[in-house]
Amino acid sequence: MQEALGLRDDQILVKTFVTEDSACEDAILELIEQGCDMIFGNSFGFGTYMAELAEEYPDVIFLHCSGNLSNDVNFVNYFGRIWEARYLAGIAAGLRTENNHLGYVAAMQIPECIYSMNAYFLGARSVNPDVTMDVLFTNTWYDPTIERQTADALIDMGCDVIAQHQDSTMAMVAAQEAGVWGCGYNADMTEAAPDAHLCAPIWNWTVVYKAELENVINGTWTCENYFLGMQEGMVGLSPLTKNCAEGTQEVIDEWTAKIMDGSFDVFDGEIKDNTGVVRVEEGQRLTDAEITSIDWLVEGAVVA
């Protein structure tokens, strides 16, 4: 984004390792004091702090990643239809499993994690109706030790494909060492688990950063939430590895084409939850807003 727009280093201030508590508010106030008039917050737990400060500083534009809070003045959220890439990764898992038992290492019990695991499992079931999935939550975005322990627990339960919604590679390392398979997240994790990794849903954040900044520079910015998907190049799937089952690429290419031309959406009905209740009726297609509010697991997935 910086390169594309010709921005200087001193025009972009970055604060890292900011925790999801009052430290977030402190960091934002420091950035405002340093003259920042556009602030991106890149963790779900920053949302409430950004919402409050957006009211206090109406001349500053606040953009929150993965949240569900916004106003109609200066505070928006942005994310991508990662469920599209998750669905494709699920196809790879559903074709690879030998015992039809998937495991999922999830961070938080929030919609972002829940709709992601649902999409992954729907993809798996699209090619393997007999597959089931156990989910364990770590209640942390990044803790390599806990992520490893949680993956090991799922493997001990008999799961032979491990997926993750975590920020380290330790779930994939656990799969590698146990001789099972895995689907990473955020980046291609093949290097960390060359004999286990199948593929990973990945992000291209440049798409939204560049677009939002260009609109500010051009004076055309409006307070609208951003949700971009595979069509816009914001989300995608890393290259399939040698560990995938034969024929996986052809199936994924088929479903990718349907997502790209709009003839298919991951949350097209009929979809039941894991208690058997129909949550999405036949012929119904959930909106982005409805998807990002999902708090139920699809049929066949359980919290272990």
How would you describe what is shown here?
The strands form 4 sheets. The chain has a 6-stranded parallel sheet with strand order 8-7-6-4-5-14, with helices on both faces. Helix 4 crosses helix 5. The protein is globular. The protein is an alpha/beta fold. The chain contains 10 helices and 14 strands.
Q: Which helices and strands, and how do they pair?
A:
Blueprint: H1 2-5, H2 22-33, E1 38-41, H3 47-56, E2 61-65, E3 75-80, H4 82-96, E4 101-106, H5 111-127, E5 132-137, H6 144-156, E6 161-165, H7 170-178, E7 181-183, E8 197-199, E9 201-203, H8 206-218, E10 226-228, E11 235-237, H9 248-261, E12 271-272, E13 278-280, H10 288-291, E14 301-303
Helix pairs in contact: 4-5, 4-9, 6-7
Key terms:
304 residues, alpha/beta, 4-stranded parallel β-sheet
Per DSSP, what share of the residues sits in E-state strands of 2 or more residues? 15-25%
Query: What summary fits the major beta sheet?
Result: 6 strands, parallel
Q: How does the overall form come out from the CA principal axes?
A: globular
SSE order in H/E notation? HHEHEEHEHEHEHEEEHEEHEEHE
Number of helices: 10
